[in-house]
Inverse folding.
């Protein structure tokens, strides 16, 4: 379903920094045999260089969330509550390697609106670098008749 997708991220590494993205995208409901949940597909571009586009796919099920970014930044972030997973974040300036300690994933369908969330800690070794939350709100785009 074509939707307007709002992604609000908060990263706290001693001071909270909030980012917000609002764009058009596609939301697919996942079948129960795949764990239920939703897949959010959308593209973002760099404000300073609009031709620099990144494809974003966020998949959220009852058990986990996966954030995939491909473009100017390449990364796959796996968030599983109670588990820690490695992550490589590739940019034009180099590659960062860290771990993701998952805290929670959730989603709900409220009428036509889909609300999802996840929280995790970015670790460097055993040291917490940043506490992070992401909230996603998707509403269908109504085609004019």
């Amino acid at each position: 379903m074509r939707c307007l997708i709002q992604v609000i991220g908060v990263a706290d590494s001693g001071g909270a920094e909030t980012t917000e993205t609002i764009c058009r995208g596609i939301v697919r409901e996942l079948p129960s045999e795949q764990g239920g949940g939703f897949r959010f597909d959308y593209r973002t571009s760099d404000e300073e260089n609009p031709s620099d586009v990144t494809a974003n796919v966020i998949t959220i099920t009852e058990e986990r969330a996966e954030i995939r970014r491909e473009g100017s930044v390449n990364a796959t972030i796996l968030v599983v509550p109670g588990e820690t997973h490695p992550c490589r974040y590739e940019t034009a300036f180099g590659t960062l390697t860290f771990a993701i300690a998952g805290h929670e994933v959730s989603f709900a369908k409220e009428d036509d609106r889909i609300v999802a969330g996840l929280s995790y800690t970015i670790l460097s070794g055993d040291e917490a670098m940043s506490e992070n939350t992401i909230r996603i709100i998707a509403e269908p785009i109504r085609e004019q008749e």
User: Anything to note?
Assistant: The mean pLDDT is 92. The first strand starts at residue 2 and ends at 12. The domain at 2-140 is CATH 2.40.128.20 (Lipocalin). The chain has no helices and ten strands.
